Amino acid sequence: DAGVTQSPTHLIKTRGQHVTLRCSPISGHKSVSWYQQVLGQGPQFIFQYYEKEERGRGNFPDRFSARQFPNYSSELNVNALLLGDSALYLCASSLAGLAKNIQYFGAGTRLSVL
Amino acid sequence: AQSVTQLGSHVSVSEGALVLLRCNYSSSVPPYLFWYVQYPNQGLQLLLKYTSAATLVKGINDFEAEFKKSETSFHLTKPSAHMSDAAEYFCAVSLFLYNNNDMRFGAGTRLTVKP
């Protein structure tokens, strides 16, 4: 069975640009979460979606937005990129978005902002 | 509020030695606790989780962790380190809330295994 897949694997952008990252969850999983992992730090929670509705939002500016599609895949959008947005962006899926559910992580998209 | 503190950003052990990675948490509600491992250029893989059942939790690859409420700790151990255990390890806590996967991760501990 396919795991969580993320695309692209690497991305280089310049300041002020916009970026869209994509995530396909494990088949049957209805919840997707997004995390930002800056080099040398642990992942930080950005968003959680369940059944196409936002169920959680971390402490990130409004430049960050996301959505979940009817097939449960998800997109993370970041506008007006800053140098500090350079990070590994991880997507995780789980069955039902419950705290006790195991989250399965993708390999991430590494974003470099120049 | 909840947070996780991992003591020691780097831990080095010899192959065959005991592995001990420390994690302390703070939470206003009973927590769910997790240990994840991250190999270079990969995502996170779950090692084990505590969800208020047995306090001693066994995970994959002979890792285990013990939940100690009195010490607010969830330390990860492995009796005998292998070279393949070299990786970054993250402790994480999740709120005991319905429909919330807002996990808070520690800063990570990089484990080095010497031959």
Can you tell me about this structure?
- Chain A has 114 residues and is mainly beta.
- Chain A has strands at residues 5-7, 10-13, 19-24, 31-37, 44-50, 53-57, 64-68, 74-78, 87-94, 104-105, 109-113.
- Helices cover 0% and strands 50% of the residues of chain A.
- Chain A is globular.
- The chains are: A mainly beta (114), B mainly beta (115).
- Chains A and B meet through strand 4, strand 5, strand 9 and strand 10 of A and strand 5, strand 9 and strand 10 of B.
Which structural traits does this protein have?
heterodimer, A: 114 residues, mainly beta, seven-stranded mixed beta sheet, four-stranded antiparallel beta sheet, 11 strands, B: 115 residues, five-stranded antiparallel beta sheet
* Overall pLDDT confidence of chain B: 89
Radius of gyration of chain A: 13 Å
Task: Provide the helix percentage of chain A.
Answer: under 10%
Based on CA atoms alone, the radius of gyration of chain B comes out at 14 Å
N-to-C series of helices and strands of chain A? EEEEEEEEEEE
Strand content of chain A: over 45%
Q: Write the H/E string of chain B, N to C.
A: EEEEEEEEEEE
Query: Span between N and C termini of chain A?
Result: 37 Å
| Number of beta strands of chain A | 11
Helix content bin of chain B:
under 10%
Average predicted local confidence, pLDDT of chain A = 93
Oligomer: heterodimer
Unreliable residue runs of chain B = none
The best one-word shape of chain B is globular
Short précis:
The complex is a heterodimer of chains A (114) and B (115). Chain A has 114 residues and is mainly beta. Helices cover 0% and strands 50% of the residues of chain A.
List the helices and strands and how they pair.
The complex is a heterodimer of chains A (114) and B (115).
Chain A: E1 5-7, E2 10-13, E3 19-24, E4 31-37, E5 44-50, E6 53-57, E7 64-68, E8 74-78, E9 87-94, E10 104-105, E11 109-113
Parallel strand pairs in A: 2-11
Antiparallel strand pairs in A: 1-3, 3-8, 4-5, 4-9, 5-6, 7-8, 9-10, 9-11
Chain B: E1 3-7, E2 10-14, E3 19-26, E4 32-38, E5 44-50, E6 56-58, E7 64-68, E8 73-78, E9 87-94, E10 103-105, E11 109-114
Parallel strand pairs in B: 2-11
Antiparallel strand pairs in B: 1-3, 3-8, 4-5, 4-9, 6-7, 7-8, 9-10, 9-11
